[in-house]
Amino acid sequence: MKKIIFIFFFSACFVGIQAQTPWYTNGNGSTTSSDFIGTTASQPLIFKTNGIERMQLLPNKSFLGIGVSNPLATLHLHFQQIFGDPSSPKLLQLTTYATGNGINNGFCIFSDEITRDIKFKQQEQAKFFIEGVGGGFVVAPTGNIGFGTDAPEEKVHLQGTLLIDRTASTPSSLQFRHPDNIRGIPPPDDDPQIYIAPHYWDIYSDINGLKFNKVLKSNGTSAQMMALTWDGRMGIGVASPWAKLHVGQHILADGNITTKDKLILATDNTTENRWEISRTSIGLNYAYNTTSLKDILFLGNDGKIGIGKTNPAAELDVNGTATVTELNAQRATVNTSFTAGSATINNTLTAKDLKTTGLLCAKEIRVMRSGAPCWPDYVFSKDYNLMPLRELEQFVNENHHLPNVPTATSVAENGIDLGEMNATLLKKVEELTLYIIDLQKQIDELKKQ
């Protein structure tokens, strides 16, 4: 009995010396700054329920693990799979007095057991902000994301500037895709290869400028559709534009040019009331579409211009009637010939060559002549050698036309130069005047006898 009392007393003294204020399950009211729950040896602090370890604080660093006995971070959460757990377990849920603490309250972090995806979810009808010192982004309850704005109006709403920095190893900077598979859409007759496989748009920049590519999703091959160079040139269907606007063409397997390569100017999206500018293998065609396409102007590769026709036979070939108020061939760059079935000129026609196969009606035609002599005033010069009448008679009897006057055969084949012909006729009138003056002198002499 004495031995037992001694041991109890000794133990009590030892405990009294070593132990601190005990912690009670119904609360502690007399703790000090030296009181704590933990270990003084190099052992972790372990929390268990039902005899199973649930949480552990490492002894050598401030790493707290929940669901894991070897935490690898300051806070390490590990979901221990239990039979009947959901496929996307909830790793973290944050709630407040304002949100409530139900299963669908607050903010949660989920993990997908199959894909290993992590999902951050705001479960309240409130916005989810991620911000730095200079700002950040917000996810609205609608799913819209806003950068620089707290009220995003679209799926992505940016208020400010956007910088896309493409690295040398990155094949693209920005892609636009559509979920629809375009297989099954009937291909156009002129280019059946366009709709062979699904594709998407790829926009990127390089040392030459900004590129817009169409990429086939099946094999990754791309075709450049548009380019913007650093010096302000735009190419459509051409990789290296040569001008401010350079429109290329798609050549089909048979060597023809697809009818899709057109420039259309319209007031609406109908097939009527629009201008179409298209490039063909022989030239550039301007057409107007009302109920049916009508060819208006054609510029041929050979420099010929057709109005109302696509196969001009001359430098200017008009299919119809030309009505001109004033035509100056040099200013109008028609420097060779003007050919028309019928031309009505209401004021003045100025041209280097004029040729008509039909009727030419004009109020005034003025022919400008150059060179010397441009007009036969030299006939009245004292040293002019007027052909004697007997020689003139002999020439007419032999040639059946006046000297220096074109023959009927020549006129039928080549026509006449209006200015030259008028000068020739004036020369003959002046020569005739000289003959008459000489005859008058002879008559006057005879009267004196």
Provide a descriptive summary of the structure in words:
This protein is α+β, with helices and mostly antiparallel strands and 449 residues long. Among the domains are: 320-366, no CATH class; 376-448, no CATH class. The chain has helices at residues 2-18, 389-399, 408-414, 418-448; strands at 45-49, 52-57, 64-66, 75-77, 90-94, 107-111, 118-122, 128-132, 135-139, 145-147, 156-158, 174-176, 199-206, 209-216, 222-229, 234-236, 245-247, 262-266, 274-279, 283-289, 293-300, 305-307, 316-318, 322-328, 342-350, 359-362. The strands form six sheets. It has a six-stranded mixed β-sheet, with no helix packed on it. A six-stranded mixed β-sheet has the order 18-19-20-21-22-23, with no helix packed on it. Strands 1-2-3-4 form a four-stranded mixed β-sheet, with no helix packed on it. The longest helix has 31 residues, at 418-448.
